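User: Structure with adenosine monophosphate, tokens only please.
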Amino acid sequence: MLNIVIFGAPGSGKGTQSDNLIEEYGLHHISTGEVLRDHIARGTELGKIADSYISKGQLIPDDLMIRVLEHVLDANPEKTEAGVIFDGFPRTIEQAKALKEMMAKRNTKVHAVVGLEVDEDELIQRMINRGKQTGRADDTPETIKQRLKVYHSQTQPLRDYYISEGKYHGIEGSGKVEEIFDRIRTSLNERVPEIAAMKAE
Ligand code: AMP
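Assistant:
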């Protein structure tokens, strides 16, 4: 069993590289952004609350977000027990601590955190392009600016948190998708003992 967090600023390629990680290591994908967008599309109570934050480029409050994630884990035990890629969670230190507890309660842990590092001009350009291609409501210039501000103040401190836990794999996130994934795979295969053991089987 392998649990990986994919981490980075909005627009850093977390969703794209999650697809590669799922294929390589057979993980179950949990994207908290997708979970929330699905609720918004279905017009649920949670969707209405989530929309009021997402449309302003703000984070959903920690206590609510932690409950949502716990619910997703409990709803899919057979899928999540095989290993999960967490995409978009945690986004605050409080969420990281909650994730640690959630994993411990399930007799497992976060094995590695893949941090995609991309410079700001490229992030903005990528999100503007994605907004044009997909119509994603929060990929507008004003909201992008706010999301990056929130990322720097609330999410980036997690990088140091996971470095201190010895779990952080900083990956240069510019270039071709396959090249970036090669860097991720090399780093994980070399530094995560559980993956080396899986490869040896
Ligand atoms: P994403 O698809 O990961 O970029 O998430 C889109 C939006 O959903 C974010 O800008 C937040 O408003 C909200 N969101 C997703 N995941 C979280 C989380 N872990 N904590 C708080 N808000 C979140």
